[in-house]
Amino acid sequence: MRGERPVRAEQRIRVVIVGGGTAGWMTAAALATLAPGAATVHLVESQEIGIVGVGEATLPHLRAFVARLGIDEAAFMAATHATFKLGIEFRDFGAIGDSYIHPFGSYGRPLDGVGFHHYWLRRHHAGATAPIGDYSTAVVAAAAQRFTRPGSDPHDLASAFGYAYQFDATRFAPFLRAHAEARGALRTEGLVTGVDRDADSGDVVAITLADGQRIEGDLFIDCSGFRALLIGGAMDEAWEDWSHWLPCDRAVAAPCASPAGGIEPYTRATAMAAGWRWRIPLTHRIGNGYVYSSAHLSEGAATDALVDALESPPLAEPRHLRFRAGRRRRSWVGNVLSIGLASGFLEPLESTSIYLVQMAITQLVEHFPAARVTDADRDGFNALVDAEYDRLRDFLILHYHATTRDDSPFWDHVRTMTIPDSLAEKMALWRQTAQVSRYSHGLFLEPSWVAVYLGQNVVPDGWDPRADLPDGAALDRALAALRGGIAAAVATMPDHAAYLQAAA
Ligand SMILES: Cc1cc2nc3c(=O)[nH]c(=O)nc-3n(C[C@H](O)[C@H](O)[C@H](O)COP(=O)(O)OP(=O)(O)OC[C@H]3O[C@@H](n4cnc5c(N)ncnc54)[C@H](O)[C@@H]3O)c2cc1C
């Protein structure tokens, strides 16, 4: 599998996956479903070690994964106690008391090729008070706790949004396991204790387990989580550390009972003294956690702050997790490819980890060697993974850096720290021209950046001059009609909790 060495033409490629968390079973399910003629799949996991098992909020892309694997959405949602998600509400980030929703979907509609937010900025600077969220169907529906699946006409305002899921992460991997095993994936329970490498090529040829079993393969996928047994251990691939920009390195998590009333179709992130707290409503409980910087807060104080903030007593002992922001210098080295926490970690502020797993799997399936793996395949894969990680890193840093908070050492640090040049350039472009750096693929396109910039009070003084062309009164009427149309469309949507019940 290395360089130009042909793979064994007479057989399917033997894929060995180390790790049975979300990353491992997503990979196994995808390969068993999408490449059954090309690969055999053998997954090794150790229940003694267990899985991270947090990761309850997702992005709309997961729907495509579920659909492509032929998974029935209703069955998947029932098995994982899932709710629908229209975006993330950020509280207290730009300043204490502030709140905005980063929606899955656009604001308004572009007019004559000019983005809607330019028109909004023009009217905002003229004194108009309606927040930009009033022009997003996802924001208005989320705030009203209403939900329906979008229709197929993208020009219809009522359909101008996407949705994702909030689910019980401990149930996702077992659900996918059943799917993968039904399609021929093999599973072995055991602790990996050794890795055999070819002396000449450096490729991994086999892993050995504590009970002496030896499992050979052609392609090894490291889904061993933070342990990174193959990519970090055997291949010793360097780690690029980003903790100077993203200092949160701990989390404490605890579920609590759902309050009476509705179920919010959105995740909430509330800024705290030394990080932020998530709140994720599922059908049977609320998931909560405090992501914090251990340089600024002790474990005990973080736990107390989380428990104090819960709506009801915790349903389980608080769980403590440790991590570091960053990524492997290369995710695919030789015949070892890392997916999930083994390849990198970005805190869950924008629910990006499972997306990154999915993106890597999609690339793997697309690059899946028909006959041989070339350096170009590996380089192409690594370049895409790097680009995604680097852009997400900048997007997350923006949430911290774009603040006026000076109420704790943590917020003083992130407000005043030196940010990556790539983010400084993006912010300068926005401030000067109200333009968002464009890229054609990947995560978080223009509306997402607009949501966070405006939500955190980074408001440019100018806008695209073409937005000055329409007559002011006519523009006001058009904006009012848009708001009214969205409000009317949302008013016809069912209550989210009732919709879930009807769909169950
Ligand atoms: C606090 C926190 C909150 C998060 N929230 C979100 C979120 O809201 N949304 C989101 O998308 N993501 C979130 N994530 C990330 C998400 O949890 C992970 O991306 C996802 O669970 C994938 O984990 P994994 O499969 O890579 O690793 P793990 O779940 O750690 O699985 C590792 C596997 O490797 C196995 N293993 C390890 N060593 C050995 C060995 N020696 N022998 C055999 N097996 C071994 C383990 O048994 C396990 O099966 C969050 C992460 C954290 C830490």
From TrEMBL:
Source species of the chain: Sphingomonas taxi
Protein name, per record: Tryptophan halogenase
InterPro entries listed in its UniProt record: FAD/NAD-bd_sf, Flavin-dep_Halogenase_NPB, Flavin_halogenase, Trp_halogen
Keyword Flavoprotein in record: yes
Binding site for FAD: G20, G21, T22, A23, V192, L341, E350, I354
Sequence positions that bind 7-chloro-L-tryptophan: K85
Coiled coil: none
Active site: K85
Keyword terms, alphabetized: FAD, Flavoprotein, Nucleotide-binding
Single GO molecular function: monooxygenase activity
PANTHER family: FAD-BINDING PROTEIN, FLAVIN-DEPENDENT TRYPTOPHAN HALOGENASE
Keyword Heme tagged: no
